[in-house]
Amino acid sequence: MRMLRLGAVFLGGALGAAMFASGLAAQVQTAETYPATLRFGTGLITIPVAWVSPRSGDIWITSSATSIPATTGTWKVTDGVNWNTNGAIETDWFGRVSLGVALYSQNPEWGVFGRALVVDERDLRAHRGLGWMPSIAVGVRNVGPYEHEDRLLVGHTLQRDAAGQYVHAVQPFALRFQSSPTMYAVATKSFHLGTANASLTAGYGDGIFRDDGGLGTNYNDKGQLVAGLFFGGRVAVHPFAHTTLTLLGENNGWDWNAGAVGGWRGLSLGVYGTELEEGRGSAAKGALYQLYNYAKLSVALGVTTNLFDLSEGALLRSRMGQLEHEQVVLRGEVVEREQRLASLLQMLSSARTGELPDVSKRRRELEAQIQAERDAIRRAQDRLQKIQDGQEQKASLVGVAMPESH
Predict the structure, then answer these.
(1) Phi-psi region of 358 (alpha: psi -120 to 50; beta: other; left: phi over 0)
(2) DSSP letters along 165-211, please?
(3) What is the Cα–Cα distance from 188 to 123, expressed in whole angstroms?
(4) How far apart are CA 171 and CA 155, in angstroms?
(5) How far apart are alpha carbons 185 and 334 in whole angstroms?
(6) What average pLDDT score do residues 210-233 get?
(7) What CATH number does the domain containing 131 carry?
């Protein structure tokens, strides 16, 4: 099924992207944002919300892992590996559309997802009588060739064929799943609880939200209220500057999940409990007890930034590099001209003592050269100061440390 190697790759990639993004731009959020779900872009824990970032180019890169302890049963993960890992990238555009791709395993298995915001509550607040309306969105998940995926995205795997080659295959228990594509509609209403931002979400979907692949209680023993119905809520507070703490709870159509996400300057770390209603796993809970029907721990690491911020930061860094090179050249020029100025002053001193012929004419020539050198030094120093001031301003924008002045 899954190996921890994918999690290491995604966690490393997310960390690298986080450092890259935070080094290039300290993003200023224009509105409260949602964290990324465990598997499919922004939302709560696993369910989507009716929300799209109002700023085009916002991007979420997320890696998540869910504990599935290895056992001696048929559907164990692998010996000594206890985490089912996933990754996703989402980008939002025009305040209306989100698009992304999720990676289900290192095989690789993947699916495209997206969401369109049909009604935006932010646009309705100014209209009398419509301020009560929630945002409404429609979306899709698992668009791609892997049509037999379950809610944990473990329906497909790699197996050796008769020739000894690895090929994609459907897990026997997942043959009856029909989850590509998974369609849904969702509504979200935001409000304030004192200084906290809060929201409630409800929606309905097919596929991953509804299809149990004919497995019945082997797939879900309890937790489902209405087939296809999902709902949840969140509360977000800001305990410190540039810091967000979000508490989340949901029913994803199958299970009750809860957790918290901490965010700082575009970096996020989420810790969740999923399938909380199931308690501990045991063989008495069905033939697939190694996968379903027991509480699990999940973690997610992510970074949020903006593509335009990254582009602007890269351009600023390139320009700063050019300016730093110019500073080196100018400093060398100042040193060289100061040496020439010292030589000219010595020659002028000799001219004044009458050691050179045609003293008056020579002295005027030397004084003119001295003044030219002084003017050139002053211009170079003024340019250096302007470069230094400009670099400090640009560095404050892109969040980099400035070298000490010489």
Answers:
(1) left
(2) -EEEEE-GGGTT---SSEEEEEEEEEEEETTEEEEEEEEEESGGGT-
(3) 14
(4) 5
(5) 68
(6) 95
(7) 2.40.230
Tokens found for residue 389: 């001031």
Is the Cβ–Cβ distance between 41 and 47 less than 8 Å?
A: no
Share in percent of the chain as helix, strand, coil (round to 5): 30, 35, 35
Q: Tell me, what's the pLDDT at 119?
A: 94
CB 154 within 8 A of CB 142: no
- Asked if residue 404 belongs to a domain, the reply is no
Q: Are residues 258 and 328 in the same domain?
A: no
Task: Tell me the residue range of the domain where 109 lies.
Answer: 4-303
pLDDT of amino acid 15: 47
pLDDT tens digits, 65-102: 998 864 445 544 443 457 888 999 999 999 999 999 99
Three-state DSSP at 246 gives: strand
- Domain termination residue (choose one: 241, 276, 303): 303
Boundary of a domain, candidates 257, 279, 303: 303
Count of residues in the chain: 406
**Three-state secondary structure string covering 27-54:** CCCCCCCCCECCCCCECCCCCCCCCCCC
Among candidates 245, 301, 298, 244, which has minimal Cα distance to 272? Answer: 298
The Cα 385–Cα 389 span in angstroms is 6
Is it the case that residue 157 has pLDDT exceeding 80? yes
Q: Which residues contact 317 (CB under 8 A, 6 or more apart)?
A: 24, 398, 400
What is the domain count for the chain?
Answer: 2
Token pair of 93 as six digits: 């555009």
Tell me which long-range contacts 115-118 makes (C-beta under 8 A, separation of at least 24): 115/41, 115/48, 115/52, 115/139, 115/140, 117/50, 117/51, 117/52
Tokens for 51? 């929300």
**What span, in angstroms and rounded, lies between the C-alpha atoms of 159 and 152?**
19
For residue 308, tell me if it sits in a domain.
no
